[in-house]
Amino acid sequence: MRPTSDQLRETLFDVLGPAVAGSAFLDAYAGSGAVGLEALSRGAAEVVFLEHHKPAVELIRTNLASLKIQSGFRIMTSQVLTALERLAAEAARFDFVFLDPPYSEISEYHHVLRQLGRSQMLHETSKVIAEHSRFCILEEHYASLGRTRLLRHGDAQLAFYRLENGRQAV
């Protein structure tokens, strides 16, 4: 596991600002759950944690329990692409999607971003944020998603995507 650094997480939530309050937030490749926990602490109405690694899922559960968080979240233990298909079938929609696959799994970024860009899980104003290595080059467009911002922080970067021109995914 390579958790999102405290500084990078703070930068992320400074950029997202007060819009997190009341939002539906998806934390894909959740690891320890630190990003989703931060979203909950900033008032997100619901956080869905996606993680397939069972020890990491247990760590998320432990972190939630230690913070006495008993509601407002869902943990899905499966591969991210499988979980996204299930969420799409449930007609789930998210205001924010954060994804942080292992830096070495470059194809995961491309597959997940394309799937999100084709799905109906995003609103016109939704933001998709991918944390990645500065050595990984992500595309500017994935289906209906277009990159709007790229922030570099040390060896990590945050790529921000939105539906282009307010288009709904196809």
What does this structure look like?
- With 170 residues, this protein is of the alpha/beta class.
- The protein is 32% helix and 30% strand.
- It is built from five helices and eight strands, in the order H-E-H-E-H-E-H-E-H-E-E-E-E.
- It has helices at 6-16, 34-41, 54-66, 80-89, 106-118, and strands at 24-28, 46-50, 73-76, 94-99, 122-133, 141-142, 145-153, 156-163.
- The chain has an eight-stranded mixed β-sheet.
- It is globular.
- 38% of the residues are buried.
- The mean pLDDT is 92.
Secondary structure layout:
Blueprint: H1 6-16, E1 24-28, H2 34-41, E2 46-50, H3 54-66, E3 73-76, H4 80-89, E4 94-99, H5 106-118, E5 122-133, E6 141-142, E7 145-153, E8 156-163
Parallel strand pairs: 1-2, 1-4, 2-3, 4-5
Antiparallel strand pairs: 5-8, 6-7, 7-8
Enumerate the strands of the largest sheet in spatial order, edge to edge or round the barrel.
3-2-1-4-5-8-7-6
The average pLDDT score comes to 92
Q: Report the β-strand fraction as a percent range.
A: 25-35%
Large-scale geometry? globular
Distance between the termini: 34 Å
Q: Rg to the nearest angstrom?
A: 15 Å
Category by helix and strand content: alpha/beta
Largest beta-sheet details: 8 strands, mixed
Instruction: Note the run of SSEs as H and E.
Output: HEHEHEHEHEEEE
Number of helices: 5
Unreliable segments (pLDDT under 50, ≥5 consecutive)? Answer: none
The beta-strand count equals: 8
Please give the share of residues in helix: 25-40%
